[in-house]
Amino acid sequence: MRNVMNKISLIFIGVVAGVMVSLNFSAIANKEIKEESVVHTLPIEELRTFSQVFGRIKSDYVEPVEDKKLITEAINGMLVGLDPHSAFLDSEEYKELQIGTQGEFGGLGIQVTMEDGLVKVISPIEDTPAYRAGIKTGDLIMKIDDTAVKGMTLNDAIKRMRGKPDTSIALTVIREGEAEPLVFTLVRAIIKIESVKSKLVEPGYGYIRITQFQERTGEALAEAIAKLYKTSKVPMKGLVLDLRNDPGGLLNSAVAVSAAFLPKNSLIVYTEGRTSDAKMQLRANPEYYLRNTGRDFLENLPLSIKTIPMVTLVNGGSASASEIVAGALQDYKRSVIMGSQTFGKGSVQTILPLTNNTAIKLTTARYYTPNGQSIQAKGITPDILDEETDNNSRLLREIDLNRHLDNGHEEEAKQKEAAKASKKSKKEADKKAKKHELMEFGSEDDQLLVKAIDHLKTMTEKPKQKTANLTKD
């Protein structure tokens, strides 16, 4: 069991390299780089070119540059050039990674990547300064305070956006559809994310929202389910699981959430990569989701939680761990998936510690749903597509990111064509959804939740109606 969990602890499934803006990292891995894995024949000519460039910079650059800076930047470029999710973590970033899954961190609360020299917003995290200020997916940050972003590396921009809590920062952004740049003043904060939120929509119908997959998400989910069952004055008839705008997080937490609703030993997700550690099958058993030898927090769940009708809500902000859960529930036909196409983050990142308390975050595998579907650059397609009521319709997905990893199963051209069609339909949906822009997920104005509850009622009430008619006849 411990061997299995040791493997799982290696997996990092956050959304983008730029997630460090909010100092929120999605997993920690303690894996030593094996010496034999780095012994390869080195390209002599390319190394000679590197040496020449290094020498020219040292001798001819307008200002003196330290060797350490040049080498660090070369390492950065080597990893960033692979895909949007591989990165070098300096000692400060690595330290933040190791505490970032606790659900409390400092920053603005935005996930970002780099595009055409500007910082592009993947998603503002719910209940954070960026979210409350009105930063949106697809916004291009062109200035941080009075400094232009053009020419900065992503890490440089991230460090400028960090700062002490209660200090102000101005972000100038370019937004599609706006004639002039927009300026947002944000106040940095210590951000506490409530991973699981729940409520009883009406007697017999529960609502659970997962905002992010953290260390205690599985336990919090179990507590939320128990509370819903206890609060409802009638037997539970249906449940809505809301994964909209959930960027992902810890893999074992995604397995725990899936295991709460699926039969024991069900295959939740499997990964494929080049190394033996990158090939795993994760199932709905405690050994795959408990991070220690503690009590199984799912063992006392109400039996009917495995069978009551479910609707799972997703959108373009549902990524990584969210897609694992949605994919598993969909493949087993355990839940109806409703909403819009998900982000398409189907690659696995492993944290490999180096010397001097630094590390690299390296893409090591793709993950697949139980039926063998690769989510990478594609995402999960809902059973009931409903983009019109998506209050945060996404124009940006994994396939839109520069150097994204391909799907592994399908031709890139087909993926891009599908993404183009989706983007066009989303633009049309955005126009219709403007009145919902300030809507809070799970609120009375949440039209997709209303549709989900209505759908659950048709699932639970139709059999009764049919029986009544047969009796009457």
Automatic annotation (TrEMBL):
<dbReference type="Pfam" id="PF22694">
    <property type="entry name" value="CtpB_N-like"/>
</dbReference>
<feature type="domain" description="PDZ">
    <location>
        <begin position="94"/>
        <end position="162"/>
    </location>
</feature>
<feature type="region of interest" description="Disordered">
    <location>
        <begin position="406"/>
        <end position="441"/>
    </location>
</feature>
<dbReference type="Pfam" id="PF03572">
    <property type="entry name" value="Peptidase_S41"/>
</dbReference>
<comment type="similarity">
    <text>Belongs to the peptidase S41A family.</text>
</comment>
<keyword id="KW-0378">Hydrolase</keyword>
<protein>
    <recommendedName>
        <fullName>PDZ domain-containing protein</fullName>
    </recommendedName>
</protein>
<dbReference type="InterPro" id="IPR005151">
    <property type="entry name" value="Tail-specific_protease"/>
</dbReference>
<dbReference type="GO" id="GO:0030288">
    <property type="term" value="C:outer membrane-bounded periplasmic space"/>
</dbReference>
<dbReference type="Pfam" id="PF13180">
    <property type="entry name" value="PDZ_2"/>
</dbReference>
<keyword id="KW-0720">Serine protease</keyword>
<keyword id="KW-0645">Protease</keyword>
<dbReference type="GO" id="GO:0006508">
    <property type="term" value="P:proteolysis"/>
</dbReference>
<dbReference type="GO" id="GO:0007165">
    <property type="term" value="P:signal transduction"/>
</dbReference>
<dbReference type="InterPro" id="IPR036034">
    <property type="entry name" value="PDZ_sf"/>
</dbReference>
<feature type="compositionally biased region" description="Basic and acidic residues">
    <location>
        <begin position="406"/>
        <end position="420"/>
    </location>
</feature>
<dbReference type="InterPro" id="IPR004447">
    <property type="entry name" value="Peptidase_S41A"/>
</dbReference>
<dbReference type="GO" id="GO:0008236">
    <property type="term" value="F:serine-type peptidase activity"/>
</dbReference>
<dbReference type="InterPro" id="IPR055210">
    <property type="entry name" value="CtpA/B_N"/>
</dbReference>
<dbReference type="GO" id="GO:0004175">
    <property type="term" value="F:endopeptidase activity"/>
</dbReference>
<dbReference type="InterPro" id="IPR001478">
    <property type="entry name" value="PDZ"/>
</dbReference>
<feature type="compositionally biased region" description="Basic and acidic residues">
    <location>
        <begin position="427"/>
        <end position="439"/>
    </location>
</feature>
<dbReference type="InterPro" id="IPR029045">
    <property type="entry name" value="ClpP/crotonase-like_dom_sf"/>
</dbReference>
